[in-house]
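FAQ: What does the model actually see?

It sees only this:
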Amino acid sequence: MLFREALVCLSVLGALTLPIRPARACGPLFPPYFLEDRAGTLSVLPSGAFLIEAGRLVPRPPDAFQVVESQEPEGARVGGGTEETALYEAGARAFHAGKWDEARERFQDVLALPPEQRRRFSTFAAFMLGRMAESAPEAHEHFVAVRALVREGFEDPLGLAVASLGEEARRHLGEDDAAAVRLYAEQAAHGSASGTTSLLFVARALTQEVTRLRRALHEPVVQRLLTTYAWTRGHEEIWAEDGTTSHPPALAPLLEELAAVPTLSGADRLAATAWGEGRFDLAERFAGRERTPLDAWVRAKLALRRGDRMAADQGLAEAREGFPYEEDWVGDPYRYPLRPRVRVDVERVLLALLRDDFSGAAEHALSSCSWPDLAYVAERVLSVEELQRLVATHASDPKLQCQPESTFRWDETRVPPKLSEPLHLLLARRLLREGRGAEALEHFRGTPWEEPARQYVDALDRARSAWWDVDKARALYTAARLARTPGMELLGTEGAPDWSWVEGNYELGTWVPSLERPEDAPPVHPEVVPAPLITPAERGRLDAHVPPHLTRFHYRSTAADLAEQAAALVPERSQAYAALLCHAARFTSRTEPERGQRLWWTYVRKGALSLEHPIPSFGQECPEPDFERLRDRGLSFRWENPRPRTLAAVGGFLMPMLGIVLLRRRKRSLRSPDGR
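And it is asked to produce this:
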């Protein structure tokens, strides 16, 4: 019964303490793309999650107790010896019947048994004696005994050692809030969700009662609790049981109370809160007091505000070294994590871009393991040669073995590949778009797209080396079909305009970032944001590395270009010509409807009515071009091809000359030896 009551209480508290965060109305979420919101990335210092930070107010105890809060383990209330079981069950019946004196006697009888006869229910009995204690000192004695028993090896299947910390803390609330916070903090350090939730309720209560707040602020752990609350939940909305929401008191008075504490514990959190509130004087005052990763991050922001980008980068480098990659400030399995180390790395990417250090930006992007941001730098900013050097330099680097956040987090069956795989494919597609097929094939090797890529490269090589126009047209058409069907995988851009990293299912921006901030984004500090956020040198690189077309699914336009080139090599009134125009229109029917109109009129003007079998659904259903029919009719030889024209010209000159030579030799052979 006791455990069921605890579960109900935890469920209610959990619902009441869930933060209300901005969320999109519909549609899937994707991994953060920090370089798209450059103003926010530079200006905003993200806040942590209270329910994570509360577990760090005190060091994790070396003898961590078992935590049981979600579901009672099966068989937890059985398994003791005959006598201890009978005594404990008698005490439990008396407790629920309201016979507390009798219950106390039975629980004390359990503890009076020899140790070897009460291994199972000793912790149960001591815990219940603590619950029934008539004073805080008496409760303290029994709850301490529970924890001592567990340390001595007595069984604790219900996690009562951890629960005893919360029960003891509850006794101190209102009278000695500092003692309560110390116990709740220890409970939270063991990993108890009940402990962290209790700390949140205590923090809310203290901020609403100045007298209690000032009485408790002498305790360092209380200082850390309230600076953490201000940093993570200062503007929270609180849900009530009736469905209404409320807001805590204004944050400014709490900041002043905290700032008045000499040698404040939690100065880094106060500095971070002050930065978010635009209290730069307070942030400057408390930054540097505690050498933590968060403090280094605040110092970097302050340096950026002063215009000292070098000091800002140094602060970010210091912060990065202090944050483990696994650190997550969201803590919600259904949302993308907010990893401070990743965010710090991308801020360094942005600072490198602002000083036109593009190779440095690529190195920081690689370290971040943030695929959307690395893809931007690798595809749009670096030259192909710079990207090749980056990939070659880090071929065996563990950085390439990191695993970016899954693009499709809602699909648990998908496991994101290591960073090296999409980076090699990005380089392969860039090389293929630039016509460097042999180099591209090196990076397609071992992937599912190796064979289609080889076929595409071979088709273009045949088109370049073909002697006859019909063979050239056939090769171009083969390449066109490959560019259209597996085009995303062979030629598509990772970001705009094709968005391969979301499989082309969503359009998330433009080739040149718009830098527009989301409507629900937190406000920025204008004095921190430099202008322009894209330097002329970076914009010049964006222009230089733009794909052949900027339409969505641009490879379809490439396929249509190849089909039109093939059509230009065959006679205009042939079936192959009409079929090639039809396919060119079909390839771009949804992305370039104006091209389809142009090709339709070309088809009509240049002989559609003369065909034996006109195309009724032009641009939708197209026959295959009949290249063999051209060859059979002798139409494969065209003067537009320079090689046949050269042969014909040379042949036209050499054949008469050869005839003259042969005729003169014959005349000489007919003369007699003495006929001269």
